[in-house]
Amino acid sequence: MDTTPKGNRLHIALLGRTNVGKSSFLNMMAGQDIAITSPVAGTTTDVVEKAMELLPLGPILFLDTAGLDDISELASLRLKKTEKIFDRADVAILVTEPDVWGTYEEEVLAEMDKRKVPVLVVINKIDLDQPSETFLRELKTKTSRVVPVSSFDVQKRDAFVDALKRQLLEVAPDDFVQPPSLVGDLLPPGGLAVLVVPIDLQAPKGRLILPQVQTIRDALDNDAAVLIVKERELPATLALLNRLPDVVICDSQAILKVSADVAPAIPLTTFSILFARQKGDLAAAAEGAAQIETLQSGDKVLIAEACSHHPLQDDIGRVKIPRWLKQYVGGDIRTDVSAGRDYPENLREYKLIIHCGGCMLTRREMLSRMQQAREAQVPVTNYGLAISFTQGVARRVLSPFPSALLAYDRKMKEHSSR
Amino acid sequence: MDTTPKGNRLHIALLGRTNVGKSSFLNMMAGQDIAITSPVAGTTTDVVEKAMELLPLGPILFLDTAGLDDISELASLRLKKTEKIFDRADVAILVTEPDVWGTYEEEVLAEMDKRKVPVLVVINKIDLDQPSETFLRELKTKTSRVVPVSSFDVQKRDAFVDALKRQLLEVAPDDFVQPPSLVGDLLPPGGLAVLVVPIDLQAPKGRLILPQVQTIRDALDNDAAVLIVKERELPATLALLNRLPDVVICDSQAILKVSADVAPAIPLTTFSILFARQKGDLAAAAEGAAQIETLQSGDKVLIAEACSHHPLQDDIGRVKIPRWLKQYVGGDIRTDVSAGRDYPENLREYKLIIHCGGCMLTRREMLSRMQQAREAQVPVTNYGLAISFTQGVARRVLSPFPSALLAYDRKMKEHSSR
């Protein structure tokens, strides 16, 4: 059951004059009939709040403002109740239909502009009528965010929703796209995290790499203590403790050795998974890792690097992961490497995308890349999860994250029942 | 007893033709008669190695090459034995006397230049004869490092030695001026350091300040583990351990609270002291802290900041330390703040210099600043030690460093016996 408090949800004002199909649009977004949809003008007569989980964006709350479009209603735009909805919105979706644009729409743009709230313009009902060139040209001068949809076209529904999700992701305010806790929520106050760092510390002399520092800081910020130790000293150091630590975190590449050194009762995960959760959608990445189970000789896998300059990771993405994949599948897996901002044109040819940690990406950018993969219907996972999967410890490293583990188990069950 | 291995000592070739006073120069440096000095030419007939501790520079080894100055000896410069001394030298001191310069000196400069070994030219016997303007002008075209001394002038001896020390510090090779271990030498392999960090972590969101990171890294590099905890969780976290940690390190400003939370059997020090040792001369800084004991109402103390932009430390140097000094002395202490590369002109008016941590200085620069203070005969300590002293825990925070503690105790005894 989703218990996200209202305040943490992205508030989306759903605006549009009567009968442009706001309620059916809402149904399309929700993937089910939740509003009373009817072709009779003005059926939706009051404000409807509808909470949903719009992955990879997260928890949102639609504020359906009920067709306020005639003169009297335009006046009422400034009425307290309506203003309140305008004021509550983080983002507005203005629904219209081909070649329909007037005072109402202009008013909405102006009100939202005044509040610096971004507006997506959705042109609904494109199955009935295509918008004219003139209309589109005119619209382009007013806003760059236009998404043509048809909320009644069941076949294209997913594509429409995906396109909208990407636009929403781009305009959502920073604090909504802000990362969740790195490790703090795995630790009770006074808790203890053990960080296992590689023997050949990969950082410049006298330093630690940023992910390690960030993890330490996050634990301290959550009133927990952190014990840092190299792989070699781990068993002796765990023996110094008179109780089990709350979580052990290690480098993906050491997971096999470390998982043998850490009692099964101790939650264990990797830095890579902490960051996959913070930066992207861990449940989706867990499902993506399960996709490895279905790979067959001859399949193509894309190794996606967000930037073209991280030589240290080279041998992970270019050598180790390809080798482990082949070993796991027991056949030939073709791995291509794509570096940089865009996926290759032939993205759909791949059975799986294994993404780098995206240390240079914001959460918004990483979620956007995951969403692009989803649009192309290619599962996506990341280096760390792929490594843990091929080493047979995926369930172990996901165990501190129940919802991701559930998604993973469900996907694995799907694959095995095929 | 000093057990510094030869290899770790700065090797200084002592060169000069017969009777310029190399041996008496060596005596002056050592502060005692260790060589057989004699005005008879050629008394010193073989290579003499003399090890000494030249603070703040550290352990050095003089290679006295025995007056090789006539034609036959010049030829022998290239003989294996002599070449070997040239090759062993990190620095050369070429002793001459006023207006004496010729083929021998030119040859030495050339040989050393070939080896990229810096040369200090010492003009000895200036009590007998002043070097001529022409000589000095000529010399200036050959080298910028000229130190006039008189090794027989007992009164000026200290000033000469100080001037030479500063020149040696400037030309000593980087690896000699390299810092000692930060914390690693306090930890046995498999050891455990506890780092206590402030509740209001002073670092930018998601980070730790560099001294904390450097300390963690140094401990890991020495095969030890590190437990990091905020002040508030320290007692509960120490209770998680089934043995005492090898050292506890905290922020100077929390030393009073932390020293109460940490059993006396556990070695305790501050980040500030670790860095004072790494960056400068801890024993000298400990003696400097003891100087606070002698301060009286009306005395002037200089707060020296290495750079003019560290606002975070402002209230430590400008507010807290002055207040604590006044409280400790029980009278009015005038504190002036000097920021930047140079001490003020009136340095000798101060009874004590309390230096910032010098995070922007190299060890060479910090040692040079301490040496400058020594030349002005003003004791120098640092923020961290001054704080610990005024809080009555100076001995406790120095206890992990026996030689600094000894220097401190000796100085305190001196003060109390006055």
UniProtKB/TrEMBL annotation, chains A, B:
Segments forming domain Hydrogen maturase F tetramerization: 285-400
Superkingdom of this protein's organism: Bacteria
Start and end residues of each G domain: 11-125
GO cellular component, one term: cytoplasm
Matching Gene3D superfamilies: 3.40.50.11410, 3.40.50.11420, P-loop containing nucleotide triphosphate hydrolases (3.40.50.300)
Pfam family, one: HydF_tetramer
InterPro entries: FeFe-hyd_GTPase_HydF (IPR023873), GTP-bd (IPR006073), HydF_dimer (IPR041606), HydF_tetramer (IPR040644), P-loop_NTPase (IPR027417), Small_GTP-bd (IPR005225)
GO MF term (any one): GTP binding
Gene Ontology biological process terms in this record: tRNA methylation; tRNA wobble uridine modification
Domain named Hydrogen maturase F dimerization: residues: 182-280
Protein name stated in the entry: [FeFe] hydrogenase H-cluster maturation GTPase HydF
